[in-house]
Amino acid sequence: MPDVLQGIQNILIYGGSFVVVLSVVVFVHEFGHFQVARWRGVAIDTFSIGFGKTLLGWRDKQGVQWKIGALPLGGYVKFADDADAMSTGPREKIQDPAELAEARKKGLFHAQPLSTRSMVVAAGPLTNFVFSILSFALLAFIIGRDEPTRVDRVMPGSAAESAGMVSGDVIISVGGQNVADFGDLQPIVAGSIGEPLQVVVRRGDADVALQVTPAASAEDPNVGVMGIAHEAALVGSERIGPVSALSQGAQNTWDIVAQTGAYIGAIFTGKESGDQIAGPLGIVNVSGQVASSALSAPDADLGQKVLLLALSLLSLAAVLSVAVGIVNLLPIPILDGGHLLFYGIEAVRGGRPLPASAQEWAYRAGFAVMASLFLFATWNDITRLFPGAQ
User: Fold this and answer.
1) 308 and 160, same structural domain?
2) Is 272 among the catalytic positions?
3) What is the pLDDT of residues 115-140, one digit of tens each?
4) Rounded to two decimals, what is the model's pTM?
5) What is the pLDDT of residues 247-280, one digit of tens each?
6) What pLDDT is attached to residue 93?
7) Which residues contact 61 (CB under 8 A, 6 or more apart)?
8) Which of 30, 102, 219, 238 does the annotation list as catalytic?
9) 17 Cβ contact list (under 8 Å, min separation 6)
10) Residue 323 lies in a domain
């Protein structure tokens, strides 16, 4: 019976955190489209979070139907003249100049000037980036600066414990390489199974040199680990002001953009495989782990755990929001970047869009690419979560 209750608890934590994080990111993206469309006088029919059967819905005074769908894997803003939720084209093609002018006055999206359509489409991913900047800034303002290489826990029987490392140590360098955070530390340790590494830590006011020999991870015998953990703190060691926090938020967002761009470039040049691309199952797993870690934080009361949970999920949402912004700007038809590509071609052609047949084939190709990417990412998730499935 306890195992059943634990299973139900895990489903609620993992499923609930996934729905919350993804819904926030999707809402931010679609709200960007929505707000700019409303500002430009575009008639909007539906604002949906999720797909499929409507679980909850209402219509506001402007006639917009707001709804929550049963499948929480995305969302959309449907304009009054859209043929479908992906806004791939109008229900009816208008050729007559007088009718086009009348449709523009009515706020029909596909009759709007190229500038308006471009602004509405670009607003979604750009709002994702703005959300990430503000979220990271809020986190920095609330938490302050933290020691990113502070050791909060030393696992019993680990290589770190054998070497004499203790909670509170701040790692300065490993194997002669300076480390700024755990992201710098992990690649060095991961590839050093059985190799003694000199680790310099700051302990109080003194620097202490230790010799740590990473052991093989229980999850992956090909990856070395020291057996230490760094946990998010409710309050960092140094408080910062709003301007510094905003600067930190912008820097964090740019770092993710740069790292993602470098990774995508490395895939195309053959320097990296695509095994780090994650799909819905991967997001479920990460969001569940983040939530579980926050709720099981040691020496924290219920209020502190709830606050840590909120901050942890906000941090994850900020990271995911950057990813959504980047992906949506890819020049793939059915994505925002694909729409912007078509608008760019239309501008080059003097206001003449691509023929409808060419757009239709492009959208079909775009759908095939995205479906293939979804299946590939899902397979990555399965092989990571269930190694025996390979």
Assistant:
1) no
2) no
3) 999 999 999 999 999 999 999 999 88
4) 0.78
5) 989 998 998 899 888 888 888 888 877 777 888 8
6) 82
7) none
8) 30
9) 287, 288, 290, 291, 313
10) yes
